[in-house]
Write a structure and sequence with these properties.
The protein is α/β, with parallel strands linked by helices. The chain has helices at 3-10, 29-39, 59-71, 75-82, 99-105, 107-117, 129-142, 157-165, 190-199, 214-223, 231-239, 244-252, and strands at 15-21, 44-48, 93-96, 121-123, 146-151, 171-174, 205-208, 226-229. It has a domain at 13-149 and 212-252: TIM Barrel (Alpha-Beta Barrel), CATH 3.20.20. It has twelve helices and eight strands. The chain is globular.
Length: 256
């Protein structure tokens, strides 16, 4: 069973996914935040694997990466922290990060270990599709790990179709040709959404980058199957005490 697939069977619209960086703001924050997000009844969680050069991320998440690494976070520690997470929650969980640390860790070993933990998917923005198809596709399938890829407003129709054919979780729609944390330009997205709709993709679509409040979540829900909130939540974690009630309040302020 893949929990992402199961989620979409029971809930096709208004999926709210929350991203945060592992080991931020404190090394031991990771599982606590997951448990509080579960209590707040979000639909899906994306955990950032800290990396020294996060190319797709804006200043907020870059800073969180730096602090997490300085806190001592590593892939090995993250997997150790997550080893019992399925005794605490059954929410779909994806890991998001960059290819270099996974190669250094050992790709087959990494995929086997996250499968044992119960991780449902991976988002690796800098992994070329040919590399995935040649080196990792069979392993992803063997370990039942969803492969989630990103498209942007300037991605060609041919490329979007190829991504859709090689994705088995959802297609991550990046709201702009920019980094995470930039404000969502709602007026500029109409043509983008029309193109995606006309392509009639096999996978569900979730919009990310710039989703930060009720208005932007609503806009994502109107045109896609869901929304991903990342930088806004990471910023919230840096400015607020991490409690169940505080996180519930943050999530409730996003909901329609």
């Amino acid at each position: 069973m893949n929990r992402i697939t199961e989620l979409f069977k029971h809930k096709e619209k208004n999926i709210l996914s929350i991203y945060f960086t592992a080991g931020y703001p404190n090394l031991e924050s990771t599982t606590t935040i997951i448990e509080y997000l579960d209590e707040a009844k979000v639909d899906m969680i994306e955990i950032g694997m800290p990396f020294s050069d996060p190319l797709a991320d804006g200043p907020t998440i870059q800073d969180a990466n730096t602090i997490a690494l300085n806190n001592g976070m590593s892939l090995k520690i993250l997997l150790e922290q997550l080893k019992d997470i399925r005794s605490k929650t059954q929410i779909p969980i994806l890991l998001m990060g960059y290819l270099n640390p996974i190669i250094q860790y050992g790709e087959p070993k990494f995929l086997q270990e996250i499968h044992k933990i119960g991780i449902d998917g991976l988002i690796i923005p800098d992994m070329p599709l040919p590399y995935f198809k040649t080196h990792l596709q069979k392993l992803y399938y063997h370990f039942n790990i969803a492969h989630v890829m990103l498209v942007t407003p300037t991605t060609s129709e041919k490329r979007i179709k190829e991504i859709d054919e090689n994705t088995n979780g959802f297609v991550y729609l990046v709201s702009s040709n920019s980094i995470t944390g930039n404000q969502l330009q709602i007026n500029h997205l109409k043509t983008y959404f029309e193109k995606i709709q006309q392509l009639q993709l096999n996978n569900k679509t979730i919009l990310g980058f710039g989703i930060h409040n009720k208005e932007t979540v609503k806009h994502a829900f109107e045109h896609c199957n869901g929304a991903i909130v990342g930088s806004a939540f990471v910023k919230f974690l840096s400015n607020n005490k991490i409690t169940s009630n505080n996180i519930k309040e943050f999530i409730n302020n996003l909901r329609l």
